[in-house]
Fold N2,N2-dimethylguanosine tRNA methyltransferase.
Amino acid sequence: MARDRIASSSHGFGLRVSFISFWICFLPSISLAYRPGEIVPMSKAGQYHASRTPWHDLIGRHCPIFAVNVEVLIPISKPTGFTGADPYKMVCGLSPFQISKFPDTISFQVGHEKFYVPWLYVINRKSSEVPLIDFHLRYSGNDLHGVTAKVIDMPHHYIEAHPDIRKHFWDPENWPKYVLVRYTWEEQSEIDVAGGFYVLFGSGSVSSSIAMACTIVVGSLSGIIMAHSLGLAVSFILAIYVLQSSKEKLTRFVRENVAETSMPGGVAKVFTTKTPSPIGRSISPLQPRVSSPAMAAIAAFSVCSPLPLSPRPGRPPIPPRRPTAPANTLEAERGVEFETGDSFFRRESAVGRDLGVLSAALHRRSLPPGGGLRVLDAMCGCGVRSLRYLAQAGAAFVWANDASEGCRPLILSNLSGHPRFSPQGDRSWVVTHLDANRVLAENYLRKEFFDLVDVDSFGSDSSFMRLAISTIRKGGLLYVTSTDGYSSGGHRPHCSLASYGAYVRPMPFSNEVGLRMLIGGALREAAALGYRISPLFSFYSYHGPVFRVMLQVDRGQLHEKSRYGFISYCHGCGNSQTFSWEELGQISCACRKGEISKSVVVSGPLWTGPLHDVTYVTDMLQLATEWGWACTNGNEVDLEKLLNQMIGEGDPRLPPGYIKLDEIASRGKMNSPPLSTLINTLQKEGYVASRSHIAPNAIKTNCPIAECIQFARRIRCSTSNRR
């Protein structure tokens, strides 16, 4: 009899374990679909006069951004055969979900559920107002649960702020039409309290039934106790599993919905939360969250439960939501559109980006067949340079990195217009948010080298220089930046010494010294690694100021006669000279007859060679002409003038520095002659002379300043005699 009872008990326990396993296998799993700030892909189609357009994927800046309210302008192209007689309907679907068309609706599938959105009348609808498409998206956690859309009249404050909207929209000849689309997200509760308690109470009922059956079979007090204990164990295990699988959601739920209170037993309170509002606007309606005794029970259990309610160690925390760029930050450079948002962006730096794209395209042409151009944009900002390297320079792969993770939605939006994968299945671009030195070091350790490394740094940060050089392929390009005008002006010599290894003193051509300081610092770092560099072009822009230099990196030791030395300037006579390392003890000025004078200042070591490679810049000018960039086009910069000035500056016979006409007039005590007249005169006398792209009222020449003053005086005299 005892054996039979033990066997029956064992058999009941086996049934109970099987029952537990059966229920656990069918519990729903938690899956992550989106992170806040990520783009939700979307496609659209139109219908006019019983004909429908194919589905077209929207670019990133036109798509909704998960959990972020935003307003965008979506262009609508003129449909074929449009006469204005029939209404124009449009429909949008979230992709890459499965899409199927119905006579008047669109169906798109998210997971195992379908949400239906009717066709939206956009043009020639029953209203004379400008339409606004209002999307309402519902989500919880990382899952999208539904979407509805409707066309409403554009609010009057939009019309008042932009009075031309109505005129352009209803003009039958003005295409494409731009429709304002508003995406509003509503967060819903992630905890199904009723369903959870149904499971718990249901499992308790089943456990009680099993306990009664075991009691009848066993028929003893010990059997009853054992059966009830097993029933409680089943309920407890199920409760633990439910809480464990949903602990992240439960933690957030308790934090947002249950208030801490000192009252005995704890009281759950009802809270109201505002719907997230678009940028620059506020939505007043409040949506109350559900509160019930069941929630209070869950909250009390979560406080008493030994289960940790913190996120799982293996899962990265969800970053805080960050608003995306306002709709009015749309920019365009050479036909490429992008958004800047609240990232640091300068329109004046477009010239430097133009030069970088031209250089990258030339380098791509020089690569062997089958070798695609690989670019690393170590400090990409909003991603405009990365986008232009892909779209205009034809880069096969671009690594876009920025230390600020808050820029991720903006960068993804800008790059989403370019395919993420090539037809061969290779990645075309990737976005990371790491320190620039870490990205460079990790790629170097993995032996993943790049043809072009672009580091658009701020100030005099040169800590990346050595790692950037190590990450470049043989013969590759390094595009470096400095914005430290104080150091180049000689006002912080110890800073320039620490950053670039050059002690810089004040000189009248300080902006050119800034370029030579940057090249010299890169040359020093390259020589320590067994590389040699040569500048292809050097560009100065007054805003900032900004110093940008494109360098070619190759294997080789620093040559004994390299152009890496010192530059002197005499405040007494205005003469400047270059000195090598061997001549350090012989620095003086001819006006002092070899004597030591405080009027002579020395800066260095710096790059003392040409700032540009004439052949290379000539090829850049030809490519700019092919692309239509050479001549002025609207607000674009005339690159033909700039590149021609660089070609003139690149003559290897020209010494460092330039002479301003103001200095000639001041030292000669006369009015300065026209710049072009002085340059022509010097060239006729056998000297090399050209304009400087750094200072518009200065010349670069190998003629001493004393003789330049004599030529200038002669020009003024001849001009006066003609009068």
Observations:
- The radius of gyration is 36 Å.
- The chain has a mean pLDDT of 76.
- Residues 193-218 form the longest helix (26 residues).
- The longest strand covers residues 143-153.
